[in-house]
Specification:
The protein has 16 helices and eight strands. It is of the alpha+beta class and 358 residues long.
């Protein structure tokens, strides 16, 4: 069934780093407690501090988020834990975005705001709305992964369950999907539970998680509509995103350097051009974030070099991949950064691995 874009508004991506709004962690904590599972050890093992999670300015990194969900999955906390998350979701979970959407005039406006500002919720995927090319009466709400590292199935379940729930709440249960597709393996004997939760056909092992529903639902007026509140909270949402973008600008620079260094390019002018800013703006925004171009360049080169050394690449090849003109210059820089020569760093890492092996 082919689709063409109906409403495809690129979200304001927060650089190329991946994170999720902190209050989602609170939802997970509450869901675990509700099932009689102590959340403290799971969060601690994932390296997530619980206290700051109520603050929407707190972002959970993809690594920590993945470790938490993996632990939940491995412990078989609940075979449909992702669906259980919907019990604890609330418009304010998504900070000002949730309130702005909830105060929209129609369901279509609600979804449009969610798409436009979806990076507030997470930058691990992109949300879009499409019209089915074979049936103009049907729409498809999609979540396409932007993070190349896959997450446990619980996350796909959670995305679909949370959004079906908030759309039902917004429309006083008038929202009903025709089909839910989940980018996760078939859940075995638990499949019936999914059909019961969503109230429709559920497709597993889909290429992307999506909700198929009647297009006419977009015109449903919301009883919670409040134009003034919607505008006010949308402005707060834009300010929130601008703040996050400013704080994460060094990550955008780092990502461009990772792309450019193997080509031998590391100059500030080339990076500024790639980011569509002037060189002066590049300097100013890095300064606002408390760093400099040289610091970001050196840090990026060091991280890449360490990773390449641990993967066993030859030193001369690593020098090339990190943008150095020759091995000698690379070796001097690496020793300045780490206190070790490249070969010494690799040998030390190998020794540590041998000592930790059972």
């Amino acid at each position: 069934m082919g689709c063409f874009p109906l409403v495809l508004i690129p979200p304001t991506m927060i650089a190329q780093t991946f994170s999720t709004i902190g209050p989602i962690g609170v939802v997970i904590w509450q869901a675990l407690e509700d099932l009689g599972v102590a959340p403290g050890p799971l969060f601690a093992d994932a390296g997530i501090e619980v206290g700051p999670l109520m603050d929407p300015n707190t972002r959970i990194t993809d690594g920590a988020f993945r470790r938490l969900l993996t632990s939940i999955d491995e412990q078989s906390v609940d075979r449909a834990f992702g669906l259980h998350l919907a019990k604890f979701i609330h418009p304010t979970t998504f900070y000002s975005l949730g309130v702005a959407a909830y105060c929209s005039a129609t369901l279509g406006d609600y979804i449009e705001k969610m798409i436009r500002y979806y990076s507030v919720v997470t930058t691990n995927d992109v949300m879009s709305l499409e019209r089915d090319s074979g049936d103009s009466e049907v729409c498809c709400l999609n979540w396409i992964a932007s993070n190349p590292e896959p997450f446990p199935s619980v996350r796909e379940d959670g995305i679909a369950a949370i959004f079906v729930t908030i759309l039902r709440v917004a429309t006083q249960n008038a929202f009903s999907p025709r089909r839910v597709s989940l980018a996760r393996p078939f859940p075995g004997d638990n499949a019936d539970h999914y059909a019961s939760f969503f109230g429709c056909e559920v497709q597993f092992e889909a290429p992307a998680t999506s909700l198929l529903f009647d297009a006419q639902l977009l015109d449903i007026p919301l009883v919670s509509a409040d134009p003034d509140m919607a505008r006010s909270y949308e402005q707060l949402t834009e300010q929130y995103i601008a703040k996050l973008e400013k704080a994460d600008f060094p990550a955008r620079v780092r990502n461009e350097l990772i792309r450019l260094l193997p080509t031998g390019v590391s100059g500030k002018d080339a990076v500024a051009k790639a980011l569509c800013v002037s060189t002066r703006t590049l300097y100013n925004r890095l300064e606002e974030a408390g760093t400099t171009y040289r610091e970001v360049l050196d840090d990026t080169r060091r991280l890449l070099a360490e990773d390449y050394l641990l993967k066993g690449l030859p030193v001369n090849e690593i020098a090339y991949l990190t943008g150095f003109s020759d091995t000698a210059n690379f070796s001097r820089a690496f020793k300045k950064w780490t206190g070790h020569s490249p070969i010494g760093f690799r040998e030390l890492a190998t020794l540590r691995d041998d000592q930790t092996d059972p």
